[in-house]
Amino acid sequence: MKAGEGMKSYGVQPVANVDHRNSNRRKLEGKPLASDALPLPVGLTNKIFMVLFFSASYYLMRRWREKIRTSTPLHMLNLGEIAAIIVQLASFIYLIGFFGIDYVQTFINKSIDGSWDSEDYRVAGMNCQASQPGSCTPSIPRTPALLSGKPLKEHSNEDISEAVRNGQTPSYSLEAELEDCDRAAAVRRRAVEMVSERSLEGLPLEGMDYSKILGQCCEMVIGHVQIPVGVAGPLLLDGFEYTVPMATTEGCLVASTNRGCKAIAQSGGASSVVTKDGMTRAPVVRFETAKRAAALKFFVEDANNFQTLSVVFNRTSRFARLQDIYCVLAGRNVYMRVSASTGDAMGMNMISKGVQNVLTYLQSVFPDMELISISGNFCADKKATAVNWIEGRGKSVVCEAILKEEIVRKVLKTSVPALVELNTIKNLAGSAVAGALGGFNAHAANIVAAVYIATGQDPAQVVESSQCLTMMEAVNGGRDLHISVTMPSIEVGTIGGGTQLPSQAACLNLLGVRGANADVPGANAEQLARVVAGAVLAGEISLMSALASNTLVKSHMKYNRSSQNIAALGSLPSSQSNQNIAALGGSLSSQNLSAMQTPPLPPSSASSFRHRRSGSSSSPPSA
Where is the composition biased (Polar residues) (predicted)? Predict the structure, then answer.
């Protein structure tokens, strides 16, 4: 089927040639193309020079053949042969340039849009120098802001903070005006204290290079929050041992996961498989009628058009590769769920740029298409949805292990039948009763959040990344336990965003997945997803065992409850302790205790409560 015929079948006017598409794209994007330098349309110019090249070559070969037969020197040329040589050289030069036009165009677009191969987190006009920690110099010349007739950076921090407080200086411009990210954070912090009249003592300011944060991780910085990082492991996964970093403030979490790692290792290790790898973005567009909306759906999902859409999408990056576009209609609105591989980046920015290119192309084919939003929530990002649970988003991973009966008894302090029964009643039936959407597990979000924070991932994506189905069944004659976790939406990356911060990069380095994989693009991010699934498996094993053996409360009393107040009381002198205890005992008189008892419900409230429970509308019997 020809391209024009295919478009007609969807009720779309065929695009005449490549030049028309380029012209439309120029109008829509406002970007220069290399083909703009040609006096004629690209398609016509290509045909003319192809004909000229082969015609001139054929003519010269015929003439030289005749000269060889007649023993005429080849260097003796007439006017026709000279003209043919000139035409041949000119057309040859053009054709070489033509084959390079696509490269030139992408180079021009790259210089306008910025780098494709990493996600664009830079703030316009700012360039933080890594060689000079804390320095932020404007990449575009600008007139410095003045305060009392002098440049802002020549004033003291206290004066600048006062100017921010009274509105003379915008807080967001401090990095650009002061050209020092550390100083800007200190000034802003002081201004916040002035405005709020509250102290920020206890929130650390020193100890972080704020130039690495600007433009990629956080704005309006006033300090950083400290989160403890523990390690669980070694996690024996796919024949390799991993020490898993976990950033958390929940006591017992790392210890519990560590116990699960021990049980896995002593049983021979766990294995994992990545079944799917593709980030998604779902723009929503609108038409005048549902019929036109359906025409777009049929056009986009037609296999004959996929190659064209792939070329348009893939030109945004060396790593972004279009996999699929799935459309759903809601009246005259079309939701296009675009899936693509994104290398070692988590890929939201990368795929968004590719989707923008596809939309620009589709706009030239469907002029009546109205873009509502580049994200229509059919992606679905940072939300627990059925589409992610079924179709997957990011990395879809299954991780499994077989725990030996002896290990279950000695390390986990429970039995195989007890774990199988508990998993069925709690994780499967209990979650179904609760109406869970992808929450058929004990506490997958606990482990996912801890690893995400430690390795610089987007914590908000824990919502869909922790969707997990935990399965347990007795195997090998009922002696051993087969346990698996199925996680369809693990969204991770090893480049971009918070992964570039020193602390998070160190945690990635601990796992051996820091940065991009030079040999196999995407391999590091895939390995990180496997480790996340393996850590979740370990966490599920340990928590379920604690529940089955009824030791959960005891463990949390030991590891997850602060004893500072008790220790402080115990450190008092004995006489003072006795006085405090006596005073406490005196205050708990029988009168106070009776006053602390819960009063009975009023008769009217008690009656209403009984009615709601029984569903009866009749009056209660009188006493």
Answer: 588-597
